[in-house]
Amino acid sequence: MTFKHRQNEITSKIAIAAMRQPLLSSGLWFHHDIRDNFYYASYLFAAAVDGPEQLSFEADAAKRTAAAVLLEVLRLQDQNASSDTYGHWPLGLGENPREAKPHSLPVELMGSLMAFFASRYRAHFDEVLAGAFDSALLHVYRSDFYRQKNTFGHHDAKYTAAKLIFGQLFADEELTRDGRSNLQLTLAHVRKQGMSEYGSLPWFWHWVQAFTCAWHMTEDSSIQQELAELLDYLWGERAAFYLKGAWVGAHCRGQKHDIPLDSNVLHDYVQFGDFELPSEMPRTEYAGFLYYQAPESALQTALNRSEPVEVKKIITKVSESGKAILHSYAYITAEFAAGGVWERYEEFDNEQQRWDISLPLGTQGGVNQAYFFHPSETNAIKDARHQTGHTDVLFHKNTIAALYPLPNDASPTILGVLPNAEWQQDAGMLLGQTGSVYWAVYLMQPYRLEQLSDRCLVTSEGRQNGVVIEAISRNDAQKRGISSYAAFQEEARRNAPDWAAESNLSVRYKTLNGSVLQLNADSNSNSGKSINGQAVNFSEYAL
Predict the structure, then answer these.
(1) In the chain, which stretches have pLDDT less than 50?
(2) Residues near 384 by Cβ (< 8 Å), separated by ≥ 6?
């Protein structure tokens, strides 16, 4: 199946969902986020124009419905030139969309995507819709929303792309030069500093969509080449942490549809196509429209996981308080991946996801990530993100150790999320199998296991606590003389870690491959980490 077939599959599924979605009295499908109306209408319009014979409903009627929703979206733009929110759309629409206050976010990506959509499908617009798009895009251009200081984040990626797109659209040479300058600065920055927004979902895909949109639309071959260089870099970053739809390792940010199940996977599906398209698509955006072929090196990295690899990257974080260097680690096999970031960092909305073990998508039902954390929020059972800094970690290939020296003013509870399995519960350990992967999960303190519909939830209490997780494939276990899951269970029971809490909290663990891991921690953020008696060394970490 080609990328175009996969894009058509996405387009068809979303178009069908749009036709089944009842319109509200506002003439829109959704009030929670205006952008979903634009995305769904785009797909429905495209399906009616590009593949009417493939639809199970009348194409002309679908096109009229899509055009009506697009028109209603465009009408909600603030077109008052004297307004502080000139050129913007509301985000959440409330009960009465016409009275919803404009918000700065929608135009950032949607404005450029509107320009792309209008360029591609203008010949199929009626006079009213064509005029509405022309007017809206002119107001976006005149709003100057994109004239911001470039700090090399996902907002800036969208501003830069918008400058290139609207500079060309309105023959504004100064704006185009400014956009190109920002593009060159961004490319230089990521090559020198790395991707500060590591594993940032869904915003990494805003980088990709913004620059792919500009790459498609620019008529300047030299600018297009520079956009291609940046897109090559971005797809190289994605490939490094890719495992059949899963984004493995640490995340600086992640939404509920990213953790503990990788659900925002449409761009991966179009690019790599090595997993089935999920039935749930929480963020449609423009994966069905935008495509840039990843370089061959990135494709080979992402799609060839026959041999285990270690990924060791330096991440540079710059803030008002100065520069910080983080170290990201991942160990990726064909069956699973383990990894995280060694350092705690206060990310936006406290969304840093420190570590996990990930399974490829489609290997089983429910979540595909396993991890433990000390929650910073009281609703952690419903939203298993947002953790405190009371954690020390050690990563080594297929094993992760974490200690939780919890101060007296913090909750004494840590939570764990595990994939659905028939977990064998022993004192201080959980043993399980998911497909061809065996799991040994060790806890320092007593625990409770609760089976939910899509995951298993582990709760453990104690101000000095810790977790060790080792995962191993059936084939690797057999190479080590472990002939079956039953034999693995016996070996895991003999191999329990040594916990200590007399002076400092510590754990010593000998992995199934014979490596000895030692992790020490205390509540004053002092820690010691060693592998086979040698202190953890970051000299092999690079951009």
Answers:
(1) none
(2) 259, 260, 373, 415, 417
